[in-house]
Amino acid sequence: MPVSRRSFVATLGAGATGLIGAPLLSWRGHEALFAQQQQPALAAAEPHAERLLASMPGMVRLDSNENPNGPGQRALAAITQHFGEANRYPVKQPDDLIAEIAKVQGVKPENIILGCGSGELLRTAVITFTSRDRALVAPDPTFESPGNFAKFLGNPIRAPKVDSVLKLDLNATADAAKGAGLVYYCNPNNPTATVHGASDTKSFVDQVLRSSPDTTILIDEAYHEYVADPSYATMIPLAVTNPRVIVTRSFSKAYGLAGLRVGYAVASASTARALRSTGLEDGVTAIAAIAAAAAIEDRDHLETIVGRNADDRQEFVNQANARMLRVIDSQTNFVMLNTQRPARPIVEHFLRNGIALPPPVAPLNEYVRVSLGSPSDMDEFWRVWDLTGMRM
Prior knowledge:
This protein is α/β, with parallel strands linked by helices. It has helices at 5-12, 15-19, 29-36, 40-43, 46-54, 73-82, 93-105, 117-129, 145-153, 170-176, 198-211, 236-241, 269-276, 286-297, 299-322, 343-352, 375-385, and strands at residues 60-61, 112-115, 136-137, 157-158, 182-186, 216-220, 245-250, 263-266, 326-327, 334-338, 355-356, 367-371. The protein has two domains: 5-67 and 300-389, Alpha-Beta Complex (Aspartate Aminotransferase, domain 1); 73-298, Aspartate Aminotransferase, domain 2, CATH 3.40.640.10.
């Protein structure tokens, strides 16, 4: 007999609390799963819980910062047209994608490294630039994949706290970077959704390299396309000219290709060669490369998605304000909502009602990150919020 979402979650009961800790519900959902699966003690138990929740009929997924609108028609048409080539290994397709990215970003193909999502590139950077005596610096909180992988390798981690407005504390991070192998700088940051402007970012890079010239700085721009702050700018031009700077991008967010796993890094030619030496040989499939090349060419669809996301983000703020709730200013496709009470029971309440949210992470114990879903998803979110005294 088919299992509905509500009948399934009803059977979870108290078990929902245990499932809250599964990788599905960590700060970046599925992406975090891959990092956590590197730890053998977790690998045996957690994937089952992840698959169980992901397969629930009708589950509202507001946990992984996915684009609810999916890819554009040009990307979908490319996938459909070439699906018959799924029996072939990638040969020319990744090179074609690299050429397209290089054209769009105004760099040379030698500056581009493809990855199976940007997650592969983050782990490649950790392998390449950290060691037992060369720490990873990753602010707290930030996207956990680099830190989890450094932990798996047995390499030290330094984790300066975000500041009082949930931005990366650039001075504390620069201090922590002295003698480190790699600094992970997520901008906009996940999970806080806050952003630093171009001037502050360049000053931070200069500050780090003055005191620690052998440290590499990886700037994760996974949410670049969503940023509206006029002070912000990509650091790709800096990455091409400075061998100590790497920029990563993703096709999983604004381009809506999370299921195909395509990301890329931009770096100087020498740094790109170093990354390629430790990455996968064929990390991007032929069909994924074809779809990504079509997506990055489709500027009209990207502009539509970014505009729609801005409207959805403002509507979320309006709904939160109507309930006297505070939302941290967001420059992404997710928001940090201050629940004004311990957030973990709230996340469990949502899970019991068929909505997946990531759990809170200390010290942000009264905050929950909410991915912006479809209009119907968000209507359901606020309906569940208002259940049983959730309105404040």
